[in-house]
């Protein structure tokens, strides 16, 4: 059965791709979950126009991502405060959500916490680095300075 994917499906394709799958897989899994639609001539034309719009949006998003990267670089080190035990260890750890809140508080752009990845678990005071995936082609690094909360 020829279908058009409406969402990214692991191991099968991306949104907008026209793929050939077995009838049962399409009928019992993809179609009921709205991951795909049956490929018809009208649907194929509609998908082509959607792909053109997505390509134009992708270029705009790339430019915007580069602007966000520059803003993050201009921030310098972002200050984070956390509760600390007498031994100097944090209660818990710094999360991606904490990093996003600290960047926003420092005057940086609003980020999605799912785009932030910490290189290691931040469970101590000092300097750390977080990576931010702004676009598939643009990645930025944010310097973190974790200090004790007074």
UniProtKB/TrEMBL annotation:
Gene3D superfamilies: Ribosomal protein L9, C-terminal domain, Ribosomal protein L9, N-terminal domain. NCBIfam families: L9 (TIGR00158). The lineage of its organism: Bacteria, Bacillati, Actinomycetota, Actinomycetes, Pseudonocardiales. This is Large ribosomal subunit protein bL9. It comes from the Bacteria. One of its GO terms (cellular component) is ribonucleoprotein complex. Binds to the 23S rRNA. Residues 13-40 form the Ribosomal protein L9 domain. GO terms for molecular function: rRNA binding; structural constituent of ribosome. HAMAP family: Ribosomal_bL9. GO terms for biological process: translation. Keywords: Ribonucleoprotein, Ribosomal protein, RNA-binding, rRNA-binding. Belongs to the bacterial ribosomal protein bL9 family. It comes from Saccharopolyspora montiporae. SUPFAM superfamilies: L9 N-domain-like (SSF55658), Ribosomal protein L9 C-domain (SSF55653). The gene is rplI.
């Amino acid at each position: 059965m020829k279908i058009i994917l409406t969402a990214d499906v692991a191991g099968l394709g991306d949104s907008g791709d026209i793929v050939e799958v077995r009838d049962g897989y399409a009928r019992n899994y993809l179609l009921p979950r709205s991951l795909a639609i049956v490929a018809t001539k009208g649907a194929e034309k509609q998908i082509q126009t959607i792909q053109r719009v997505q390509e134009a949006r992708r270029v705009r998003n790339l430019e915007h991502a580069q602007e966000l990267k520059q803003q993050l670089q201009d921030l310098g080190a972002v200050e984070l405060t956390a509760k600390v035990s007498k031994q100097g260890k944090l209660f818990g750890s710094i999360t991606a959500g904490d990093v996003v809140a600290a960047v926003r508080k420092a005057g940086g752009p609003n980020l999605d916490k799912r785009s932030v990845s910490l290189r290691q678990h931040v469970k101590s005071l000092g300097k750390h680095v977080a990576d931010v995936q702004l676009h598939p082609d643009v990645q930025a690094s944010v310097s973190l300075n974790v200090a004790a909360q007074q």
